[in-house]
Amino acid sequence: MGAVEIPSIAADFNAFKIAAQTVNPAVEEVPVAYTGSWVDIPKAKEAAIAQIDSGVELIMANGDNANVGAIEAAKENGEVYVIGWTRDQSHLAPELVLTSNEQRVDHILVDAMTQIKDGSVEWGNHIVGFAEGAQSFSEYNEVVPAEVAQEVDAVIEALATGKIVLDDTTGDVVKDDYHK
Questions:
Q1: β-strand partners of 135
Q2: I need a labelling partner for 107 at 20 to 30 A (CA). Which of 56, 79, 126, 149 fits?
Q3: Could you tell me the domains of the chain?
Q4: SS3 sequence of the chain
Q5: Mean pLDDT per 10-residue section of the chain, whose length is 180 residues
Q6: Which tens digit of pLDDT belongs to each residue from 117-153?
């Protein structure tokens, strides 16, 4: 469940699907719903309920504050897990939020301001992630097996060090003039 259909969120969902298929090749479909809002909690809850009704076992909630609605839907269901987004959201449902992808915009801004101040800035579009400290995962829920957490951490480390390089997952959602 995502807020707005923009390239970065579409890429996140594509990456999620690739990861799901890597773990379980039988996964064919990963339903995606966009609410059109970063803050519409009822709409996010409605979208999450529709996903739950379709049979999902896990919701990747990529809607910032609207994630509260998705987490509420999971709590009401009681059997669907959630991956939070932007910041640690485990406090909203400690028993159901497996982890959260934390986006560290503060790291990005400090790095950019430092480069501007010292004159080393290279103007343009920059892709940042685990290697730059712009992303991390919060603590794993205790229901996540230790070996799974270790495997995920190993993949994150490999991404951060460049041992694993991902292809562009934005697909055809990035328009030619998007970054102009």
A1: 103
A2: 149
A3: 7-170 (3.40.50.2300)
A4: CECCCCHHHHHHHHHHHHHHHHHCCCCCCCCCCECCCCCCHHHHHHHHHHHHHCCCCEEECECHHHHHHHHHHHHHHCCCEEEEEECCCHHHCCCCEEEEEEECHHHHHHHHHHHHHHCCCCCCCCCCCCCCCCEEECCCCCCCCHHHHHHHHHHHHHHHHCCCCCCCCCHHHCCCCCCC
A5: 89 87 89 93 97 95 93 97 95 96 91 95 85 91 95 91 77 47
A6: 999 999 988 778 888 888 999 999 999 999 999 999 9
